[in-house]
Design a protein that fits this description.
Elements lengths: L7 H9 L2 E3 L5 E6 L8 H14 L4 E3 L5 E7 L3 H9 L16 E2 L12 H14 L12 E4 L13 E9 L13 H5 L5 E4 L2 E4 L22 E9 L11 E2 L7 H18 L6 H8 L1 H9 L3 H4 L1 H6 L3
Parallel strand pairs: 5-6, 6-7
Antiparallel strand pairs: 1-2, 2-4, 3-4, 7-10, 8-9, 10-11
């Protein structure tokens, strides 16, 4: 089949399945989904074999941690899908929906403050899979970062999570050392010895946890683990830096509920074709934050919100 005989409606349908038409040809690039960028060796072999058998043998990796198989002729799409299914793989990740979740390697990274693989897999199942048939005003991207190093840029996604470890200093144990071990290790310069006592500025502290256990006199021996959530980021032609909610969530379930309420708020209040960053700009961040944090009204109205017309 030539490119001229593939009807636009069919190209649109295939895009919804994760097959992007290579302009001027009957070939397509297939976006093969991963869960937070992680697949097994068997799955990688299945993708490789399918790419060689049904495509042009070229694999590329997207910024959203999917594997894109290039050069698949229209007539090879169905057998390509069948080949992927043998290893539990699927295509997708397009359209005005919750997109596949991206994650850093915080589970194994020395700086990781949360199990980013496990958390992103749970978000994938609950919101990418669970909301797969829910049409939103625009695409909605989620990223999970294990620490404030920001490697996967959570604050440039519609919703981003960053692992936290909020230090709990005990000033009574501080000796006022002229060369403070906490000051030396603090990357944000939030920690300073003033008048012989260690102070950590909460407005400057990144909650990276690097100070915990560094003081020989046990001034900072512990820190509270948690989740910092950013809303309204995006990259592209127009960049918006997400703003953080004004609290660190110490309960995973609280953080998951915030994600769900944010998605419901976007569907309820967003305008068709409007990215979440623009919804926040139009309504005001304080208004959005209050609606998401002040009550469970959005969860109570879930069925109504999901069934309404955009």
């Amino acid at each position: 089949m030539s490119a001229l005989t593939i009807k636009p409606a069919e190209v649109t349908r295939l895009k919804g399945l994760g097959f992007l038409n290579n302009k001027g040809t009957d070939n397509f690039s297939a976006r093969v989904l991963t869960v937070n960028g992680k697949i097994t060796a068997r799955q990688m072999n299945a993708i490789t074999n399918a790419a060689e058998t049904f495509g042009n043998g070229i694999l590329t990796f997207t910024t959203r941690q999917t594997v894109e198989v290039q050069g698949i002729p229209y007539d090879n799409i169905e057998p390509f899908l069948d080949a992927l299914e043998t290893e539990g793989l699927e295509t997708g990740g397009t359209g005005p929906k919750v997109r596949p979740v991206v994650s850093c390697k915080g589970t194994t990274c020395q700086y990781g403050l949360l199990d980013s693989f496990a958390l992103s897999e749970e978000i994938h199942q609950r919101f990418y899979k669970g909301y797969h048939d829910v049409k939103l005003p625009h695409k909605f991207k989620i990223a999970v970062g294990g620490c404030p190093n920001n490697c996967v840029k959570p604050n440039l996604n519609d919703l981003g999570i960053i692992g936290q470890r909020v230090p709990q200093p005990d000033s009574s144990k501080c000796k006022g050392c002229k060369k403070c071990a906490i000051e030396a290790v603090c990357p944000s310069k939030a920690a300073k010895v003033t008048d012989g006592v260690l102070n950590i500025d909460p407005n400057v502290c990144l909650h990276c946890g690097r100070c915990v256990g560094r003081c020989p006199f046990h001034t900072v021996d512990d820190g509270t683990y948690g989740f910092k959530i950013y809303l309204g980021g995006r990259w592209g032609k127009n960049i918006s830096h997400g703003q953080s909610l004004h609290k660190v969530f110490t309960s995973k379930e609280d953080a998951m509920n915030v994600i769900e309420k944010t998605i419901l708020f976007f569907r309820d209040q967003g305008l068709k074709g409007e990215r979440f960053a623009l919804t926040i700009e139009r309504l005001g961040f304080d208004t959005v934050e209050e609606a998401i944090l002040s009550s469970d009204e959005l969860l109570d109205r879930k069925e109504e919100i999901l069934s309404k017309e955009l």
